[in-house]
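[step 3/7] fold_predict: job queued, chain A
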Amino acid sequence: MSNSLSQATNSLLTQLVMELKSGYIRRCESLGLTPEEMQMLHGLTVDDLYYLLNSSVSVLTFQIHHENFALMLQQARREQQRMQRIDRALALGGSIEMMQHFFGLSSVEVSARRRMTGIQIRQGRCSTLSDEDNASLWRQWQKADIEDVSSADGLDVMMLAAEQMDVSLTAVWHAVRSFDGAQTRTVRKAIQAVRNKAGVGEELARRSA
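[step 4/7] structure written:
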């Protein structure tokens, strides 16, 4: 073991001495110290501690808990993905209501995240989609076959749609949530309106030919 690591492990002794002098012995017991060893630690002088802290011989050993280490790495990756989703959603115009719904963020947290990442709220973006955008979103959503609108997969599809159509993510979210019941009929009418408009254009082109 290197000198620096030995000194780092031995520095724990100082903390143990402070806890013993404060009457706390549970940590010492959890490390396997016997009552005799705890008495010896309690009686250490400043010079004794100085020698131990600078000794190249370690009195402690470390062991990696491989299962916990793997779990911590997985959690770190999940948290990184979560933060990336948050930043992407905010950049696409995700509202405070939407960020609360998907990530549980408060209005203060949303504002702080926007300031920290330099995300500016775009002005003048439509709060509702056009018939063409609504029809395109409907087809894309049906193709993705997402069962839960509030799922991470559902959010990814909505963010991709907002990027492709250059519209507010919040507008996409509101539109997707309306894709049921009577609102679905409205979307179908929008699709039909787009088709009718295209048909009229083709007819006019043929007549003028």
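[step 5/7] annotate
Residues 181-208 form the longest helix (28 residues).
The CA atoms of residues 5 and 58 lie 8 Å apart.
exit 0
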